[in-house]
Amino acid sequence: MLQVYLVRHGETQWNAQRRIQGQSDSALTEKGERQAEQVAERVKTLGITHVIASDLGRTRRTAEIIARACGVDVTLDARLRELDMGVLERRNLDTLSEEEEGWRRQLVNGTADGRIPDGESMLEMSERMHAALNACLDLPAGSRPLLVSHGMALGCLVSTILGLPAWAERRLRLRNCSISRVDHQQSPWLASGWVVETAGDISHLDAPALDELQR
Ligand SMILES: O=C(O)[C@H](O)COP(=O)(O)O
């Protein structure tokens, strides 16, 4: 049975400032670096064979810290990027107009084709996230990959594995440096294919962490 670990990157400067990142980027804070070290300490004895990360800076840095502890290299995969937030990227959450906040809310309020102007839909992101996850099935037998990605992207992936639509309302918090695990299995008692073993585990962190909505 293939087990895949899913890690959201460490806290960044813009997470802490409540600024929308999307496919823009900001560096990890000192806290974010420490969170990544705590993930590394937690997973270094799990037999991780591959660390595969979104190619944005915050995920690359998190992946480098984890990969070093696991004794493997980092592989980049742009399909693991955060949702493209279009015209709202770089904006502070507290400065959004009612209309702009409406664009953001329609991503996760049951609107199938919701998107921020010039941005990506949740369905489009879901398709590329599932493609990146399914690519793990082509790794050599016995592989145990760890993917480093983002809050909206991983929340959408886990939710859709559970059968919710990509644009479903949020019912899962994925805090900075949380660890989730999904398994690909064929069991008579579970749906065939991907199942969720763990979601949003932060028991390895020594301090409260922000969720993907910077709450
Ligand atoms: O700010 C964003 O784009 C998201 O809400 C969180 O993205 P992140 O997981 O890349 O910080």
TrEMBL record:
Its EC number is 5.4.2.-. SUPFAM superfamilies: Phosphoglycerate mutase-like (SSF53254). GO terms for cellular component: cytoplasm. Pathway: Carbohydrate degradation; glycolysis; pyruvate from D-glyceraldehyde 3-phosphate: step 3/5. This is Probable phosphoglycerate mutase GpmB. Signal peptide: none annotated. InterPro entries: His_Pase_superF_clade-1, His_PPase_superfam, PG/BPGM_mutase_AS, PGM_Phosphatase, Phosphoglycerate_mutase_GpmB. Substrate binds at residues 8-15, 21-22, 58, 60, 82-85, 104-105, 151-152. It catalyses: (2R)-2-phosphoglycerate = (2R)-3-phosphoglycerate. It comes from Buttiauxella noackiae ATCC 51607. The gene is gpmB. The record marks H150 as: Transition state stabilizer. It comes from the Bacteria.
